[in-house]
Amino acid sequence: MELLEHEGELYGELVSYRSAQDFTFVRITSTEHVIRLDLSQGPSQFWLIMLLEGDLVAKTETNSIDVSEGDIVYGIGDLDVTLDFKRDNRFLMVQVPVTHPALRLRSKPQADISNLVSETGVGRMLSGLLRSVADTIMDVDDDQMRPIEVALPEFISTALMSEASTKELGGAAGVRAALLERIFQTIEMRLSDPDLNLHQVAKEHNISPRYLQKLFESVGDSFGHFVKLRRLERCRLDLRSPLHAQRSISDILFQWGFNDSASFSRAFREQYGMSPREYRRAPQEEEAQAEAPQRGRPPTAKDQAIESQADEMLDDIEQETSDVSDLPHVPVQHGARHHYLPVTPETIHWGHFSSSLKPVLTVESGDYVTVETLTHHANDDHERMVMGDPAIEDIYRWTPEGKTINRRGAGALDSSSSTGRGAGEGFGVHICTGPIEIAGAEPNDIVEIRILELKPRTSGNPKYAGQSFGSNAAAYWGFQYNDLLTEPKQREVITIYEVESEMGRSCARAVYNYRWTPQTDPFGIVHELYDYPGLPVDTSTIKKNYDVLRNIEIPVRPHFGVIGVAPPQSKLVDSIPPGNFGGNLDNWRIAPGSSLFLPVGVAGALLSLGDPHASQGDSELCGTAIECSMTALIQPILHRASDKRGHIRDLDYPLLETQDEWVIFGFSHPNYLKELGASAQSDIYKKSSIDLAMRDAFRKARRFLMTARDLDEDEAISLLSVGVDFGITQVVNGNWGVHAIIRKELFTA
Known about the structure:
This protein is α+β, with helices and mostly antiparallel strands and 749 residues long. The chain folds into 3 domains: 2-188, Jelly Rolls, CATH 2.60.120.10; 223-326, no CATH class; 341-742, no CATH class. It has 17 helices and 37 strands. It has a 9-stranded mixed sheet with strand order 12-16-33-20-30-34-35-37-36. A hairpin with a 4-residue loop joins β6 and β7. It is globular and about 90 Å long. The relative contact order is 0.07. Residues 181-282 form the HTH araC/xylS-type domain. Residues 276-304 are annotated as: Disordered.
């Protein structure tokens, strides 16, 4: 860009971002000025400019276009264009290489600039996407931008094709190009289908297979080669992404339609100059120095060598599938690392928090952590949720000779002082993975836990291979227990669900239920109630009812029930009641795409995660959600006390942020360990109420609006009444919860 002229003092802001596929995004805010746009140097680019604010006249030697707010002007890089901004303005410029498959729109390059009006149907959709990019350009990384890279070229081509007439498209040749573009889009949507073929696509577009092949020949390609390249590119992106670091290469290649590991390895090496395994391990700086990928076989390659390399890669893929300890450190932004934290007896603590627990992993702010978490309800159906999974079998092992994990709760080890249930007495029930030390975290700092991915753990039992299961316990601690209609009036019922969360399917269905009967644990103690975590259920004492919840599907909303940092107290703290340190929050919004902010109470923060849920409603009324073991990808971010600003500058309680909302957590007693004194861990179960929790949620939400949004008290109170939703988080965790949901759309600026 070249500045030609401006009125008065010129000032502004420029923010730019270049994506992994070489898309360039530039957002500029400035005063009135005129610039010359000349992109003739370097590879040819398709460019577009969306006017976010202001007035713009775009001119070439032969054309002049008045651009209104929200409209788009576009062209090819070698055009000489003058952009005249008439007043203070803000705009987003996007450049996409014209070699991208989705931009093969015409038989010859566009001769002049054109515009796309935002009020048209397709224009409105494209404008909405670009405005979102402009608003978030400073906060995204390559993985967050990847869906935009996939969608934007297809969006652009669809928009431009829908706007163009037959003449504008270049007559008959242009119409053929438009048809080919629609075919590209069909292929892109079905890359994961291993049976995708030429005849199938031709039939869908009402043309002959021969004519479809001719269309590809017109752009120097073939159907099969094009599909293979697009699949390879999708695999390449997933191999580099920390979101998929825990997945094997085999999983990735099968997801994108390849059905043979050796052929995939050969094709990947031919296209990118290295094997899939080498690519996954290579630091990004090495990748940048590698020879640029080219079509076809490398000129020095020999068939025999390629076949040998494919055999080696097949061995590597099989090894990686079975060896999780060999997961690579994924290169990510700013030198962040990727860590893998499996569940083992050494990496979990059962039923308690404590500042005296030793960290099992230390990470830097911004690192990625793949962390396995287990439900403490897996023994509700040992066959489906424990059997055949070595890690779960080890953690749950309980025989007359002993337990792998003896302590389950924050009570006495010998359990003689109170209930006699077992070591820890069940005063705390959750299997927590961690604690994870956040390097440099100190009291009064804030730790943000970004949840990037959360997937159910599949059964280790070959009988249920590939299936996932969870349990819901309507138990004695539930809200319903003393308010039942049918006999027996006080009963506990376990319902086992199958959880389906594959692509296109995301629901849970009841398999069967059974009433709890007195269970004798391996140490000979009889449990009349479900009062100790991990109790083995003797299936000969229960009656399974398979005629349950017919024709009902529960939407899967995977989330964490427990995310907490260590309370400052050195003694063991029951994992059930939540507090300002987080813990057993039990809100289904703590899900992929959200960030939970927690105030740090001890050095290193000591973050623990557990109680994974497949689905739950607000209130968790009967005592539990669908309790289901899961594996997550998280990213902890440390915010120093001296740098706290915006919505966290006055934060001393848990705060959840989603794309559209802030969620504030209120409790009957927000800091119950301090408020209730020496007997806090017993008194909290007697002194909770919705009234107190509502009062706390109101006070915190009022403070949030006054400090983070600069409202005065009267403004905040009015907004809380007319625009904020308060809901019951849970009434089963001792310290009852109410949450306030503040929608971001309320604030137009």
